[in-house]
Amino acid sequence: MATRIRPSSKRCTVIGGSGFLGRHLVERLVDRGYTVNVFDIRQAYELPGVTFYQGDLCDKLALVMALKEVSIVFHCASPAPGSDDGALFQRVNIDGTRTVIQACHEAGVQKLILTSSASVVFEGTDIKNGKEDLPYAKKPIDYYTETKIKQEKLVLEACSKEKGFLTVAIRPHGIFGPRDPQLVPILVDTARRGKMKFIIGDGSNLVDFTYVENVVHGHILAAEHLKADSPLCGQAYHITNDEPVRFWDFMSQILVGLGYSAPRYHLPYALVYGIALLLWFISLILRPLIQFKPTFSPMRVALAGTHHYYSCARAKQDMGYRPLVPLQEAVVRTVESYPHLRNGE
Ligand SMILES: NC(=O)C1=CN([C@@H]2O[C@H](COP(=O)(O)OP(=O)(O)OC[C@H]3O[C@@H](n4cnc5c(N)ncnc54)[C@H](OP(=O)(O)O)[C@@H]3O)[C@@H](O)[C@H]2O)C=CC1
Ligand SMILES: CC(C)=CCC[C@@H](C)[C@H]1CC[C@H]2C3=C(CC[C@]12C)[C@@]1(C)CCC(=O)C[C@@H]1CC3
């Protein structure tokens, strides 16, 4: 009978390792002595000790090659949340995640850590100190959220102590930090186009923004605490900075830090949400003729005008999670990392 070589517990593959979170994760894993494979649709950098496999995660054969002799897989690939390509989300986040699970089985992987999102419970209305037992959103606000829900369910249901395949889902919220392609660049672009003058609502809504190093820390703790006798098996964990902040104060701090004016004038939430819905509907109807994408999508307006912050008590209890970088320090590091986005550059 063929005996399978037991992979080293410090060999891992990061699917989506060329992306924002994935690359930070890869760098930290290498620092901690892991041997790392990256599987991604693109190769964005080179790093000693890291082997790149370029391919689409829907391609099982290509994926299995990158999982050979690996004991841990981190799955943090996804289409960009702002996309409205429903077919792409279905293919990558759902069919692709099924492929990831099958490839893990074929390659004898023992642990799968999924990057999910706290937004799987967000329906566009207030969430204050939400715990992991909140129900999944019944009416997900966009394709991204809809497919992140199905993806998380697939991964958690695949957890099997009998098969020796353990899974866990990390739910970060509002990740930011150096090299983020979304939050700061979109914010600056909106400011440069003169559209960051208004505060949606009264500006008192609290939100979690989580520094990328803390999200990475949560992933590594999860991988190292995931054992057959641990409470992590088949569970989801919020990972936040544990310092909810007023959405508009956070945005203003980044804008002012980069030399732009903070938004000052208030607009009623219901009015802006209504306009965003109308524009989204018009863009849908006109799509065959002209393509335009409103800056303030209904999702962005909901994120900007409601409370949505989450408890990370479960991660503290089960894996000893504590944020490593406090929010203020994280904002300073982030602002310093974008010299090219400063006003006037
Ligand atoms: N950013 C945030 O605020 C939050 C993110 N998340 C989750 O964190 C994860 C990482 O997000 P983030 O780092 O911001 O995203 P990025 O877009 O920066 O990284 C995702 C990476 O996956 C790659 N990828 C996409 N599709 C495929 C595919 N079919 N096969 C192989 N690779 C693919 C992307 O390539 P390409 O760029 O070419 O598409 C990219 O390199 C995602 O799962 C996201 O849902 C959760 C909560 C908040
Ligand atoms: C109002 C405006 C134009 C703000 C600019 C910043 C936004 C681009 C970000 C503010 C909150 C962010 C956020 C996400 C993407 C970027 C923002 C909308 C996510 C949707 C990314 C993926 C997730 O899983 C949830 C995030 C929530 C917060």
Describe the model.
This protein is an alpha/beta fold. It has a domain of 213 residues: Rossmann fold (3-Layer(aba) Sandwich), CATH 3.40.50. A seven-stranded parallel β-sheet has the order 3-2-1-4-5-7-12, sandwiched between helices. A two-stranded parallel sheet has the order 6-15. It has a two-stranded parallel sheet with strand order 8-11. Helix 2 packs across helix 3. The protein is globular, with a radius of gyration of 20 Å. The model has no long low-confidence stretch (mean pLDDT 95). Strand 4, helix 3 and strand 5 form a beta-alpha-beta unit. The protein binds NADPH dihydro-nicotinamide-adenine-dinucleotide phosphate and the ligand CC(C)=CCC[C@@H](C)[C@H]1CC[C@H]2C3=C(CC[C@]12C)[C@@]1(C)CCC(=O)C[C@@H]1CC3. The site of the ligand CC(C)=CCC[C@@H](C)[C@H]1CC[C@H]2C3=C(CC[C@]12C)[C@@]1(C)CCC(=O)C[C@@H]1CC3 has 14 residues, from helix 5 and helix 9. Its EC number is 1.1.1.170. One of its GO terms (biological process) is cholesterol metabolic process. Belongs to the 3-beta-HSD family.
Give the C-alpha Rg. 20 Å
Distance between the termini: 65 Å
Strand-and-helix sequence, N→C? EHEEHEHEEHEEHEEEHEEHEHHEHH
Q: What overall geometry do the principal axes of the alpha carbons give?
A: globular
Query: Which range does the strand content fall in?
Result: 15-25%
Uncertain runs with pLDDT below 50, 5 residues or more? none
CATH architectural name of one domain: 3-Layer(aba) Sandwich
Q: What is the highest CATH level, the class of one domain?
A: Alpha Beta
